[in-house]
Amino acid sequence: MKKYVIAMLIALLILAGQGFAQVVDNSSTLGQMLIANEKAVWDVYKWDNKDPKALSNLLADEYCEIDEEGEVATKADVVDGLNYLIIADYVMSDIVVTLITENVAAVRFQMQYEGYYKGETLEQCVIVSSVWVHRGEKWLNVSCQESPITKEK
User: What whole-number distance in Å separates Cα of residue 91 and Cα of residue 109?
Assistant: First the structure.
């Protein structure tokens, strides 16, 4: 139920901004900053970069994540996940930044990553959609959803 409410909120944000939503040039200041923030989230999971405070500073208190298996996680869950998830390498591609309102942006991209989760080898290919809000002097991630990319046969 919770993931449906979150999906509806994201849809409402998108619909509310229909008159304003615009794709941002990835080389613009805003595009570069949001992409850098997104990469910073993933970099925290690398072998030598485990930093719970850095991750926490990128996520809003109400942050919610829905992973590729449909599991819902809070900010506390995700920060705690640093103890279990190690990203050895990742590649982001097809990055699209959309400014929904002056203070809300969505970042969508494909992600391939390899690593370990609770000691088990992990290889994923997903589409990631994140919603970022501008609060005070910084942008915070409020929501992230990963959807698996199925391979064509």
Answer: 10
